[in-house]
Design a protein that fits this description.
single chain, alpha+beta, conserved putative lor/sdh protein from methanococcus maripaludis s2 fold, five-stranded antiparallel beta sheet, 3 helices, 5 domains, Elongation Factor Tu (Ef-tu), domain 3
Amino acid sequence: MSDHPTGTPTDTAGILGHGRRALYVVVAVLVIGVVVSLVRNTIESHALAASAAEHLAPTVNVITAAAGGAAEPVELPGAISAFNEAPILARTTGYVRRWNAELGARVSAGATLVEIDAPDLDQELAQSRASLLQTRASMEVARKASARWQELRAADAVSQQEADDRAGSLAELDAAAKAAAANVSRLEELARFKSVTAPFAGVIVKRNVEIGQFVAAGSGNPLYVLQQIDPVRVFVSVSQADSPQVTPGVAATITVAEHPGRPFSGTVTRVAGALDPATRTRLTEIDVPNHEGLLLPGSYAQVKLAGARTTRGMLVPNTALLYRAEGPRMVVVGDDNKVALREVTLGADNGKEIEVLSGINAGERVVANPPDALRDGDKVRVNAQ
């Protein structure tokens, strides 16, 4: 028989001690579980936020900045013009008897374009010729009379005054005969203009003449407009930065939309002696052979001037430029895909590409078409090219 009865205080304390330890273990397990869960949730939240940020980052296209080469060609818009253009006016007043050239006709130099009936001129010319004959006849009579009076003066049969009067009359008639001859020559010259001829070989681009039409000398609409189209002149406006390299003799290539893939070769022949103060450009003329007549005066052309530009900086597309209140900026993408807005100094602009003199370096990645909302330090996704 035991000395201690069942359910003594010693047994009760042992049971309670075991219970506390079990409770502590359970509490510890629960705490550890909560902490693990919180850590896992935090990690997953950060990962989710990073993934969301990555997916929300704008996707951009980038280009690699490259230094431009020396003596690069430059492309400019140009305008094609006829080498010579002449409005053909009548030099004689009359009526159109015949016209010989249709619109678009090719004519040679000296070809008769219009024949004019000029009855008033014909009558005036006939009268002038008759007047000249009359004056010459009177002058012949006066010459003979003056000779006789000089003989009589030698015999002292008449006074010196009378002999001088006869000589004076002869001189007056001689002057009148010369004036009449000059008038006849003038009218004969006008009569030759009854045939209107082409001053040079070319193409008829306008016709404003009909049979029976009254035409006045030097007035009214031109009867024809004639253009010389071989060669043609192409005019371009060269920027101030490029103008020193564009001199007579520089080769040029001309293209037009209606003949794609067909280049036409020309040469710079003339340059203006000053810049246009309104545009800061220099007017340049290029002569281009046009034997086939494919280049039409009045057309728009694209002109490439060989070696007309010496690039001092980087060449990037115009779309890569951001215009901000503080000045032009370009967006450079770093190795960590974070962007930096760089202040840039600009040079020549050819319409497609712009020269960047400072602010970016060769080999750096530049956003080709940056969104306006980009700020320094923003992260972007680079589109795979």
